[in-house]
Every structure is written in structure tokens, then in C-alpha cells.
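Structure request: (4-O-methyl)-D-glucuronate--lignin esterase, Clohesyomyces aquaticus.
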Amino acid sequence: MLNLLLSLLFTAPGLGQASTCPNLPAAINYATNPKLPDPFLPLSGTRLSKKDQWPCRKEEIRQLFQRYSYGTFPPKPEAVTAAMSGNALKITVSEGSKSMSFSVNIKLPSSGVAPYPAIIAYGGASLPIPNTVATITYQNFEMAADNGRGKGKFYDFYGSNHNAGGMIAAAWGVDRIIDALEMTPAAKIDPKRVGVTGCSRNGKGSMIAGAFVDRIALALPQEGGQSAAGCWRIADEIQKNGTKVETAHQIVNGDSWFSTDFPKYVDMVPTLPWDNHMLHALYAYPPRGLLIIENTAIDYLGPTSNYHCASAGRKVHEALGVKDYFGFSQNSHSDHCGFPKAQQPELTAFIERFLLAKDTKTDVWKTDGKFTIDETRWIDWAVPSLS
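Returned structure:
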């Protein structure tokens, strides 16, 4: 019965499987645009009119992010094996003569019946995970080091010169964790009910993982700021107005989170044929849960950017009839990566609906921010009626 509920939950109306989609052209000529690009307008120049056109637009957006921002997300290796030892799930990947192993720790819940739902926590959970859901602790900095480009197990396997930044390398690791869960019943985890979370830089990481790994049922990115909730175009304007905020230009100085190509574009953001609202749109099909948890007390996170960027991304969910799959909760508190009780109801609702298959309402969109809400400042396109 539970599997039937989940099957119904993750079926979007009017959408079938993606057919073969074209690759990006070698050269992309995108007119400079200070507003957020239209997610319904592919590079072909013909705006979407049908729901079944979205899967190829989604693939195009993923290719854009890989080319400009994150680097290449490699396919599944030739071989993946896994085995439990105590609480540790050891995962080994190999291609030809190359191999690499990493492990995650699984803490089973104290209530419920196996196989259990689980949340993959980047570096450990900063959100309260209920006693009905397992916690899978993923040491993502072992996969892609935070203290120098080309270091970590991903680069041991693919080479230190691989163009992937740490964010997409860690997302590849999440994909392998789910491979392992699918083949390891001894882990006692239901691979169809797996979420992902992280805070700050790991908030970005968990957002990107869910956007690129369709087998993630729920993403709970916390206080990730730009490239999780916020858009680079809006962040640039905030900076120009005198508020210190994380911008594309700043983020490539000393951090190895993004691809080796991204620095080429950080001073020409309006020429990019994408912005981070399109990252949110990647969750709309197949429809998966996404709850962005943000903080209005920290200017550096770009609260107004986070709100307006997410609002733009949610319009794809609206067009596809799954608006309530995407929630946003923005609350003021002084401790970065703390979790105020005011945000607990929406966290509980999203976990219940997307991991526990309960009939819980998730139409949540709220902020206590004092900024002016003006979507027209950033959006000059309308939500189409898709047949």
C-alpha cells in the first residue's frame, strides 16, 4: 500500500518519460538580461506550450548548469557494490582498473517498520530528524575536499583535473549512496523514500544533489543562500546597494565548490542563460518535495534574493500542477544553522508527506523579512497554461 501511495505521489499530471533530448549547441548567444531568464523559453526560442515538453527543457537546464557553473556530473560507473558492516555502509565503485570506496553511517530510527525512510545529512544533521526516519551521515568533504581543488575521493577516481566543482562531485556521491541502498536490503532503508539535507555550504550541496538526482524524494536545504535559495543577478544588485552578500564574483575566490569554468562568467552574470531559480525548477518533474529553510537575520545570505529567486522557481511547479511540492520558510534568528521552533510545523509537514507518505498539506510560503516584495522587479514573463 505504501509503495502504491508513493507511486501516485510522484506522478505529475500530463507528463510522460523524457524522450531523447538534444545536447547544448557549442555556442550559445544569449542577449544580456538583468532580469531572471524565462524557464519556459528553451534555447530554441520557442516557448513551451505543453507539459510533455518540460522534460527536455529540464535536461537542457541541467546541461547549462554543468557547462557554466558546476562542472560535469559523471554517469554511473561500470560497477557499484555495497556491503553493511555494523552501522557503516561501504560503497565501492570501479571502472576498468580504477576503483574507489567510501562509507556512510546509518542510524536507524527508534520507531516504525523496516525498510525505513531516511535523510542523507551532509556532514551530519542540523535539522531535527524524527524518530521514524533514519539518518545517513555523509562526509561529503571526503568526497570533494573543501580546502583545495581536485582533492578527495571523487578526484582520486576521476582525476584531479576533472572540471567538476565540489558541489557536483558530492552530488555524484549521493547518487552512489542510493545505488548502494537499492542493492543492500541489510541496510534496512527504503531507497524510494530518501531525502537530503545540509546547512550553509552544505545547504547549497544538498540543493544541488536533489536537483541532479531524481531518486531523492525530498530536499531540505538550510541557510544555503545563493546557489541554494538565491539568484546571482539579485545578489549583485544587493551588493551594489551597499549590503555585503555572497555573489558569484566572491564565491570563486578561494572556494572549490564550482567548476573550473565558472570564474569566466562571474563578472558577466546578466549574460548567463540561466540563474538559480532554474535549479529549483528541476524538482518540478518528476515532482519531488523541496522545502527551502532560510534566515532573514543574516544579510550575507541575501534574504530578499532568496525569497524572490525561489518565488520565480516555484512558477514552474505552478505550471506543472505541483505548486505545493515546493515550500519556503524564512525566519529571523541569530544562530546560523540553528533551527527555530517557528519552522518546525513546515519541516514536519514535508517529512510526513514525502518520506512517510501521509496526507499532509505542504502549501507553505512564508517570510518574516522586512524587505519589499516585488516579483515584477525580476520577472518579466508569465506562467504559461501548459496543455
